[in-house]
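sry for the spam today, last one i promise. struct tokens for design, 76 residues
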């Protein structure tokens, strides 16, 4: 009985670490998206042109990061 409790506790701890890691990854993705968006905005203001990759990558990274964070929080 005690061994089953220890195994259950280990599985719960591992699941919690996985959720924390997924939230951390989501935050990194969202920060990267914001950074790329800021870079694109600065380049547009200074150079008058916007990098096409910045226009696509910034919202994509923010969106995927937000979805991953929502999914991890929903599981927790």
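last one done:
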């Amino acid at each position: 009985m005690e061994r089953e409790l220890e195994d259950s506790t280990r599985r719960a701890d591992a699941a919690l670490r996985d959720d924390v890691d997924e939230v951390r990854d989501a935050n990194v993705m969202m920060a990267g998206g914001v950074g790329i968006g800021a870079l694109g905005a600065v380049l547009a203001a200074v150079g008058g042109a916007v990098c096409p990759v910045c226009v696509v990558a910034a919202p994509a990274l923010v969106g995927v990061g937000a979805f991953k964070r929502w999914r991890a929080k929903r599981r927790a």
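The CA atoms of residues 19 and 73 lie 8 Å apart. ok im logging off now
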